[in-house]
Amino acid sequence: MRCRERSGFLFAHACDRGATQKCTQCQKDICKEHVRPGTICVSCEKRSGGIAGAKRPRGGRDESYYHDPYWYAYGYYDDYHYYDDADHRVFDPQEDVAASADDFEGDFEGS
Amino acid sequence: MAGLKNVAYYALGGGHGHTLRGLAILRRLQTRRIGVLLLAPRRLQAWAKIEGIRITSPPDRPSPETLMRWVSDTLSREAPDRLLVDVFPRGILADLHHSLALAATPPWLIARRVKPAFYLEPAIREVVEHRYERIVWCEEPPDSLRDLRVPQGICAPICVRNSEECNSRTVARQALGLPDAGSVVIVLGTGAVERQRDLLRLLLKVQAGIRTRFSLVFVSDTLLPHRENGLSVLSLYPAMASLRAADLVVAAGGYAAFHETRAVGIPTIYLPQRRPYDDQRWRVRQCSTVSNPRDLAIAIAAALRRDRVSSAGAYPASGADELADQLVAHSTTTGAGPSTPGFSSDGVLPSSFR
Fold first, then answer.
1. How confident is residue A52, by pLDDT bands cut at 50, 70 and 90?
2. Which of B91, B191, B301 sits opposite A108 (nearest CB)?
3. Hey, are the CB atoms on A110 and B294 less than 8 Å from each other?
4. Residue of B10, B132, B175, B180 with fewest CB within 10 Å of its CB?
5. B 20-39 residues with CB below 8 A of A?
6. Nearest to B29 by CA among B8, B47, B10
7. A109/B273 CB distance under 8 A
8. Phi and psi at residue B109, in whole multiples of 5°?
9. CA–CA distance, B18 with B53 (Å, rounded to integer)
């Protein structure tokens, strides 16, 4: 059974972890990353106002906070593997030259 | 030269830009009742047919010798009053070199900005300075190329359509089968097919991931056409005429995509690609660019919320009309020479158009 939580600052992406329990409020299957105090899911915590009361840790970095997928935006979510090598290849600075000088049809020198 | 009766445009480079500039200029000349002929790759013949422009193409995958013979035979047979050569594509020096020597009148070189090393290469520089009557820059040239000992002039960007010829948002969306409401992102696919596939895959991930819903139109003449909910992959010519369907365009930094999006005034995110002779990073240096998937997603989301990428505002891309006027004007002056308005005889360019 997979975790049914969806979270993320910009990306409402599905969690692909295995579920370990159910939210006691909405009965949604959730993983250990998405369980909150009271055995509720992140979405129920938000609805209950729990987010408003949350504060960033002061002094010293609380790693668990920064890894919280609900809070975070892409840049800090170390475990965020939404993009793979093929996606990064789009921006590869290697010259996009398809063929040798003998093959003018493949000379994608661009415009 | 007593009047200009026929013009040939050599656009045998691999990218679309050479042919698009050729089509833009020949289209304007044709309205002036001048005979035209486009020399372009076979795979782009459909575009010329849409424009009603004569086109001839060499055999597929010709050897250098075959290509040289084909160019020479074609130009001997057609005997144009004026030959226009686009940018001097890489690897083509051999086939044009012989033909230029046979030309009754020296050709004009229609040049977008190129990396200086290309034209400063001694063998190429020699041909440019001694076999061409003039260079017409359709983009600001690098400073070092202003020293080339050949008359040079500049024109506005050359686009296949004037902005007033492009469809309105409603008409463009109807033509593309898109609803009038909702966000639309048009992608101008270019480059190797593998790169285009990667980009399409990435954009589908972005479409699924960000909260703002949008329809994705991926324009490509190498990927197979495809349509499903929220996605269209299609070949589209001229793409410029349909850009107003988009709330946002994603494009590389090639000449055609850059100037067409700016001429129409559509917010655009540029993904400059690296090319041997084209500096796309320079071209898009003052525009919105991204260099990784996450920044692309953020930029698209922000643009569709209208709080980031701003439109540059449409600007005139009347280079094709200007060049057509210059060709006609030059043909009616007595005596050869760089006396056409807009050109100088001492290699000093007028001020840049931007």
1. very low
2. B191
3. no
4. B180
5. 20
6. B8
7. no
8. -100, 120
9. 15
Model pTM score: 0.76
Q: Give the integer Cα–Cα distance in Å for B121 and B127.
A: 10
Reported as a pLDDT band with limits 50, 70 and 90, residue B188 is: very high
Extended strands (E) in B114-213 = 134-137, 152-154, 183-188
pLDDT (average), residues B246-254: 95
How far is the C-alpha of B299 from the C-alpha of B307, rounded, in Å?
10
Contacting B residues, span 150-169, partner chain A, CB-CB under 8 Å:
none
- Residue pLDDT, tens place only, B1-14: 458 999 999 998 76
Is the pLDDT at A78 greater than 80? The verdict is no
What's the helix, strand, coil split of chain B in %, to 5? 40, 15, 40
Q: How far apart are CA B174 and CA B181, in angstroms?
A: 11
Most confident of A106-110, B69-73, B114-118, B197-201: B197-201
With b meaning 16 or more CB within 10 Å and e meaning fewer, what string describes B54-88? bbbbbeeebeeeebbbbbbebbeebebbbbbbbbb
User: Hey, is the C-beta of B276 within 8 angstroms of any chain A C-beta?
Assistant: yes
Signed CA dihedral, B20, A94, B231, B299: sign only: negative
Max Cα distance, chain A (Å): 69
Question: If you measure CA to CA, which chain A residue comes closest to B199?
Answer: A90
**What does the alpha-carbon distance between residue A64 and residue A83 come to, in Å, rounded to a whole number?**
22
**Confidence band for B260, pLDDT divided at 50, 70 and 90:** very high
Alpha carbon B52 to its chain centroid, in Å, reads: 18
What is the sign, positive or negative, of the torsion defined by CA atoms of A38, A43, A46, A48? negative
CA B187 to chain CA mean position, Å: 16
Residue B205 and residue A83: Cβ atoms within 8 Å? yes
Asked if the peptide bond before residue B64 counts as cis, ω within 30 degrees of 0, the response is: no
